[in-house]
Amino acid sequence: MVRLAMPLFFIITSIVYLILTFDLTKSRTGDPNAPLYFPAIIGIFLLIMGIIYFFQEWKKRSEAVEEFKGLIQGRTPVLIISSLVLIFIYTFLFERIGFLFSTMIFLGGLLFVVNGIQKWLQNILISVIFSFVTWYSFSELLNVSLP
């Protein structure tokens, strides 16, 4: 039954997502349902994929699950915990110091965890350049306001 946990999670998540999608506010101009179309398509797609995934795993339900053993071996637990900690730090810093600097810190920290300190110059360059290009693209080129 462990095999069915993730497909059921995706199915439940997609159902909740679809319910929340239909609670979005209607548009005051043009088609009032326009803001619902894209999120509804994503939710329906996620639901369909979850159902397909469920039936694929249902066929293999009697087989042993070997994939979980890899989660507790080697560097994997450190990578998972470090990523979660960095995500929480990112969400805490995002509103306080803005998109650009919080993204640099998050991406830099993640790169240092994955690549190690030996590639410090590469990690710093990637985090700074990626963050700046992303900020510039949204803020200046697309005129999207970022915190």
Automatic annotation (TrEMBL):
Q: Which ranges form a coiled coil? A: none
Q: Where are the transmembrane segments?
A: 7-24, 36-55, 76-93, 99-117, 124-146
All copies of the DUF1468 domain together span 6-147
- Keywords assigned by UniProt, alphabetized: Membrane, Transmembrane, Transmembrane helix
Q: Indicate what this protein is called per its UniProt record.
A: Putative tricarboxylic transport membrane protein
Q: Which organism is it from?
A: Piscibacillus halophilus
